[in-house]
Structure formats: C-alpha cells, structure tokens
Amino acid sequence: MMMSDKLALTKALQLFMSPGKAVVRVLEVKPKSFSAYAINIVVAFFVSGVLHAAALPFNVPGVSPLKYASFFWIQGVCVLAEVSVEHVLRGTLKQKTWWMGRGASVVRLVWTVAILYTTVPIVADQITGVMKIMGLRQTLLLPLPK
Amino acid sequence: MSLTPKQLGLLSHLAATSLLISALLIRPSTLSHTKLALAFLPPIWACHIYSWSVGLGFLAAVHALQATELLLFQDPRERFQVVYRQKSSPSLVPRTSASDSTKEGEKEHIRKEPYPINFRSRLQWVFKLCVSLRYIGWDTNSDSSISQPISPFPKETQTRSRWLVQNILLAALCIFFIDATIAYQHLDPYFQVETPIDISFPPPLAAFLLSYRFRFLSPPRLMRIMVLGVQQYAVSMLINRVSAIVHVSLGSLGLLDVWWGGVESWPIIMGSPTVVLTSGLRGFWGKFWHQLLRSVSYQSHR
Lengths: 146, 302
Fold this sequence. Notes:
Chain A has 146 residues and is mainly alpha-helical. Chain A has helices at residues 3-14, 19-26, 34-54, 65-88, 90-94, 98-134. The interface between A and B is large, with 65 and 56 residues.
C-alpha cells in the first residue's frame, strides 16, 4: 500500500472515535460545543434503542422491536429538549436565588415523572408481551396466591 | 450429534470473543491499529450477526459494539493502562511512583500498567480489558468521565468486612424485591393476558392494595410501572452485587489481587435517584440508571 493511501485510510478511520464523535466530525461540528453534546445524546440513545431491541426474542406475537427501540429514542428526544431549555436558561439559572433553585428541582422532578409515566407503557407492553409467552417465573421465598 | 441453532450461536459468540482476544494480543509493532481493525472486525461482526440471527441478540449487539470500540474507535494497545491501587506504609512506596496521601501512616500507591511485552502478562491485560465494559480500573487516556466509579460508599472508611456485610444485605433485599414483584405479577392480569396498562385492578387486588395502605398507587398504570421498574432495578443490582461479593470475598482470602478483589473495583451499578432533582431526565438516564452500555454508546465531550 502506498504511503499516501495509508495516511488517507488512517485519517478515515480516525473519524470514528466513537459513534457520537464520528457524527460530530463528519458534520464538522466544534467538538466541545453544545451542538456536539446534543449530537452525542441523540446518537447514544439511538444506539441504546437498537441494542435493547436486539435483546427481544424473534417472532413473538404482539411484540415489536421497533416500539421497544422507540422508547429509548423518545427518551433521547426528551433529554435533548431538557438540555436545550437548560442551555437557553443557563444565564438565569447561574444567578439563581434559593427559591429558584428549589423551584427548578421541583420542575425537573415533575418533568421526569411525567415523561416516564407517559412513555414507559411503550416498553412495558413489549416486556409483558414476552412474559405472557414465556410464562411468569415462580417466587423463591414468598408464597404465591392460590 | 447435531447442534441446535442456539448452541451454534453460542459457539459463534465464543469464536468472536476468541478473535477479539487474539487481535488484542498482537503487538502494535507486528500489526498496526488500522490493519488490526481491518483484519479482525469483519470476521468478528460476521460471527455476531450469526449469533443475532439465532436469537442471541443482546449478547451479540453489545459485544459487536465492544469489539468495534476496542479495535476501531479506541487504540487500547497504545493508549490504555491498567490502574492498580494499593494502600501501603510510606516506607514501602517507591519514590518514582505517583502516590496520594489518604490516612495517617498510610498512602495510596497508584501503579499503571501499559500494554505488556511479556505474553503471559499481555494475556492477563487483554482479558481484564475484555471484561471491563465500564473501564473501571483503567486509565483510557481520554477526557471522558466514563472511567470514574459511581460508588456511593466513601473509600477511606469502608473496611472489607463491613462492605461485605452491607452488600450481602443489599443482595438479600434485591431477592426480596424480585420475589415481591413476581408475586404481584401473579395477581395482576396485565402481566398475564393481553390487556391495556390502564385497565382497572381486579376487585381482590384492589381490596388487597387498600388493606395495606397502597392506595396512593391507585392509578393502575403507576403501580405497574413501579413493579416493572423495581424488578428491573433489583435484577441488575443483584447480578452486579453477587459478582462483587464473590470477587471481594476471594480477594479478602488472598486468592485474587486488588484489581479483581478490591472493594473499589466494584462500585454499585446504579446511582442515586436524587440526581433527578439536580439533573432531571438527563440525570435519570446518565447517572441513576445503570451505565453498562455507556462506553459503547456515548463519548462525553463535557
């Protein structure tokens, strides 16, 4: 292999430092910028969704790997929305008084619970779908109801 | 005797793992980072795709990404080092090594082991790398925070025996919660037949919840989400804690070194839920829920 080809190949491979970093480099986004951080979040949740969907057994009636993966993709979108709002409000949040700090904590808690309450049924339906086919496990210690 | 597709898939997975270990055992002077990735990643991916096709999806997906991370995204042979922490008296600490003071009369001696030349040491080094999905006990020469342990236990005050007692109790608590959630699932039709998550509790279950003051969990959806969440949490925690207890016990008997059997090598897999108050949903997924897949799915820039 020619030296120039080797260099080109090495450079091409260096693009892929990690899934998120690769996208950041391909899109020529400044590595430590907010945009790069946002891209990393989206890619991380996308990869996580694919990994979890791969865990589902094949051909189980009523169980959709796409729905399972979509739960993680939705979480990625929600996390992105959250960090975007915090990024926009960062000036205000830096000069916070004690009541603003407590208020922000309450808002974060309500937001997280609301998102999980709304979206977890997507993934719960897929998990219970598999349970229904495989059957429930037996308890080790507690007596089962008759 | 013919093998079933699942058994063949498992053999394929073992072949992929052997290929990854073999690849990392080859010294950089023999095969460069680029050539190593080009030579070994295609057969490793082929093996994992086969494993995935016969139903070993999660195993295949995680390990395919781990192989890609180690052979393509990172260059562990040139950049990674195993970190050993040892507490010793000041007179035993060599002057050349990096050390931090911890307690009176004791110093934490930190030794870093780069890619070894000796084959036997290299084999151990590579094996440690392949089992370290979270890079705990590794210096990855990265600006990322993924190598930081998330253990809530303070380092200095935690003796090995106290740690073992705490963790055995924690494992027992996990078994109790797993059992309790399974028992609940036998009572709730949502976990047994095709029903929507918001369907009302059957009368006997509603009466049971009422009698035990669980009325605050009255929206059925909330109860079902909590049951699934607690079960997933307890299962992940139990697997992690049982491995930790076995390794730390063997370490305390002197059968394993500090890297395998040290308390600090086994941080708890889950973080504190209070992180939601300071970091919201980002904190829930980034610090509270397990971080097993972080190294293969996320590279922090912050």
